[in-house]
Design goal:
globular; about 30% helix; 11 helices; alpha+beta; about 325 residues; six-stranded antiparallel beta sheet
Length: about 325
C-alpha cells in the first residue's frame, strides 16, 4: 500500500445517525481526512442528524422486509465504502444474521461477534466474566428468584440499553411491580455502592491485538454521562486489557464498572461506540478513526495525550430550519 493510499478518503454511511451517538460520530467524521462523502440515514427526520450529515436521508427500519435490499441498493448507488451502524437494535439484527463483515460492496465497522453476543445480553456478560475469572457482580435471572434476602439490588432488562429499564430495588413489592409485565426479560444484579465512583471506559483492540483504553470517572444525568474526568487506575487498565483479550475484541466497545474495595467490577458491556465517543476523540483517544484505519488495513495513528485530570461536560446544541 502506497503512502498515497494511506491518505485515501472514502464514502461513509452512518445508519441510525439521528441519535446522540450518531450525531457525535457525524461530528468526528465531518472533520476526518478519511471522509470523502459523508452519508447519514435514519428512520425519521425529526432529529438533528440532518444538520450534521451533508447527505442525510430517511430509510427503512431494520424490521422492514425490504431493509437489506434497499440498503444494498443505496450502497451501490452512492459508492459507499464503509457502513457504521449506530442503533443497537440494528446492530443486533446484523449480528443475528451474521452480517458483520460486508453489506454489498461496503465494509461494516462493528465489534467482533463474541463481543456483541456477550455485551448484548447482561446475563451472558456475567457468565462470561465468571468463566474467565474476572470480577463481576452476582447476576441471576429474575424468573429464577423465589425471594431476595439482601437489599438493595439492581433490576435491569437482560437485553435493553440505556437507563430506562434499570431500577434500584429495595423490597419484594418493588421487584414484583417492575417485573409484572415481563419477568422473563429481567436480571437481578448485586448492588455495588458507588462511593468510590462509577466509571465508563473506552476500550479498543485492533485486528493485530493492540489494545488502547481510556477511563472516565463519570456522573450520570438522565441516563447519560453528563460530566466526567479522565483518571488513571492500574487495576481498571489491567482488567480492561484482560477483558479485551478474552473477548478477542476487534473494534471499539464501552465498559461500565464500579469499584468494590478497590476491585473493578464490570456491570455492563456496551459492544458499540458510546455516548462519550466525541469526548474521547477530543482527548486524543480516537477510537472511531482507529476503527476506520483498521478496517482499511492502514497503520493505526496515535494522537493520544496525557489527559489525566481533564474534564468533560455534556451540553446541548439547537438547530432551526
Amino acid at each position: 500500500m502506497t503512502l498515497l493510499d494511506m491518505d485515501k478518503a472514502v464514502n461513509i454511511l452512518v445508519t441510525g445517525c439521528g441519535g446522540d451517538i450518531g450525531q457525535s460520530i457525524g461530528k468526528i467524521l465531518s472533520q476526518s481526512k478519511y471522509t470523502h462523502k459523508l452519508f447519514g440515514n435514519d428512520i425519521s427526520d425529526k432529529n438533528a442528524g440532518q444538520f450534521i450529515y451533508p447527505n442525510f436521508s430517511v430509510g427503512l427500519p431494520y424490521t422492514h422486509p425490504d431493509y437489506l435490499k434497499k440498503m444494498e441498493l443505496f450502497i451501490e448507488k452512492n459508492a459507499i465504502d464503509i457502513v457504521i451502524p449506530m442503533a443497537e437494535p440494528e446492530l443486533r439484527f446484523f449480528s443475528h444474521h451474521n452480517i458483520l463483515d460486508k453489506i454489498g460492496r461496503a465494509k461494516i465497522i462493528a465489534a467482533n461477534t463474541l463481543s456483541l453476543e456477550v455485551g448484548f445480553d447482561k446475563f451472558k456478560t456475567a457468565e462470561f466474566l465468571q468463566s474467565k475469572g474476572l470480577p463481576f457482580p452476582i447476576t441471576v435471572m429474575a424468573k429464577d428468584i423465589k425471594a431476595i434476602e439482601t437489599f438493595p439490588v439492581i433490576l435491569k432488562s437482560k437485553t435493553g440499553s440505556g437507563s430506562k429499564d434499570i431500577h434500584k430495588i429495595d423490597t419484594m413489592d418493588e421487584f414484583s411491580f417492575y417485573t409484572r409485565k415481563n419477568l422473563e426479560d429481567y436480571v437481578v444484579q448485586e448492588f455495588i455502592n458507588d462511593g468510590d465512583g462509577e466509571f465508563t471506559c473506552g476500550l479498543f483492540r485492533s485486528k493485530q491485538g493492540e489494545i488502547r483504553s481510556l477511563i472516565f470517572k463519570r456522573e450520570l444525568e438522565k441516563g447519560y454521562s453528563g460530566y466526567g474526568e479522565v483518571v488513571e487506575n492500574s487495576n481498571i487498565t489491567n482488567l480492561l486489557e484482560n477483558l479485551a483479550d478474552e473477548l478477542k475484541l476487534v473494534g471499539s466497545i464501552n465498559v461500565q464498572l464500579r469499584l468494590n474495595k478497590g476491585t473493578p467490577m464490570v456491570f455492563e458491556i456496551n459492544p458499540r461506540f458510546s455516548s462519550t465517543v466525541y469526548f474521547r476523540h477530543l482527548f486524543g483517544f480516537e477510537d472511531l478513526v482507529w476503527s476506520i484505519e483498521d478496517c482499511l488495513g492502514y497503520k493505526l495513528s496515535d494522537s493520544r495525550e496525557n489527559a489525566t485530570g481533564r474534564k468533560f461536560y455534556k451540553g446541548f446544541e439547537e438547530y432551526i430550519k
